[in-house]
Amino acid sequence: MNDVNAGNSIPGTVAYRLGVLGTIAADRFAAAIDPLDLKPKHVGLMAALDANTGASQQDLATRLGVVPSLIVSLADHLERLGAIRRERDATDRRRQTLALTDQGRQLLTTCEQAATEVDATLTARLTPHQLQSLQEALAILATDTLPKNPLPTPPNP
Amino acid sequence: MNDVNAGNSIPGTVAYRLGVLGTIAADRFAAAIDPLDLKPKHVGLMAALDANTGASQQDLATRLGVVPSLIVSLADHLERLGAIRRERDATDRRRQTLALTDQGRQLLTTCEQAATEVDATLTARLTPHQLQSLQEALAILATDTLPKNPLPTPPNP
DNA sequence: TATTGTTATACTCTATAACTATA
DNA sequence: TATAGTTATAGAGTATAACAATA
User: Fold this and answer.
1) Whether the Cβ atoms of residue B152 and residue B40 lie closer than 8 Å to each other
2) A18–B126: do the CB atoms touch at under 8 Å?
């Protein structure tokens, strides 16, 4: 009924809609965490540290699909906030292992709440069944197309 | 079984997954149309012209949620490619109406094929039922949260 | 010589602001 | 004076490349 843009037209494709909706979602999440002095990529780095402890900056760069110098600036910021610690590897003093601090874990929890709230407003109009289907499909796409765990792209503005 | 990142952890939220998958989708689509000398935002503008003919650049800027000067550069590029025409409004000579040319419509069709191919690889592992559920949910989110028709955000690289 | 982290630099994208022409 | 389009400029974000310390 309302499908001016259904069918094969560009705005009706999954790729296009994922692109647009992904921007919206990232935008709202970015706005929600802005008061915490965090960008989505900072949260992505913290989430990676939470899931997999004791990684070097190089490891993180390749796993997150970004360049090592970006990890440096993200880690610098998180370190200033007291969310992570840099620890020199004793056996190889070139390596620095990043670890979440208690404060960092706390911050991550706050970000989780923010993301959950964004989810709520974003999916408010879906039926429970539709929401479950969406989550299921997104989970498959996520685990399927993401052997690496790329960081979310923050909105350009 | 495979859900290291399920539950309420950040990577498991809809917002986060839409953000990451949206980046992937936009990235692949951008790669697919790169040989055509187009970026996602060019395609977004062409799609808007295809859906709603005879709009001025200001109209388009507000409808697409970008600044007028960005419409200028996008239109400049599309005009150089012969995909659109600029036509001065006879009654108000300040206004310029953008219109897709036949060549532009052709180009848009090629982009549609590219998007459809990206869709195919992106959703290859979904069952037909899951695919349908995903499309349904995305359609609802799209029509629900997008009173305006924002342009897709191209990947930063 | 190769690798880790860092710094310096450049590039892309987009917004803001100043400007021209029409109204 | 206000509006449509354009141009010039600036800012955010990220990559590339050069560098220092360690292996």
Assistant:
1) yes
2) no
DSSP string covering A51-115, please? Answer: HS-SEEHHHHHHHHTS-HHHHHHHHHHHHHTTSEEEEE-SSSTT-EEEEE-HHHHHHHHHHHHHH
The whole-model pTM stands at 0.89
Query: Domain extents for chain B?
Result: 10-145
What are the pLDDT digits (tens) for B22-40?
A: 999 999 999 999 999 999 9
pLDDT recorded at residue B149: 63
Tokens of B32: 């697919």
CA distance B2 to A143: 8
Q: B1, B5, B8, B21: best mutation site toward chain A, by most A Cβ within 10 Å? A: B21
Q: Check whether residue A156 has its CB closer than 7 Å to nucleic acid strand D.
A: yes
B 21-80 residues inside an 8 A Cβ radius of A: 21-26, 28-29, 40, 43-44, 47, 50-51
The top-level CATH class assigned to B10-145 is mainly alpha
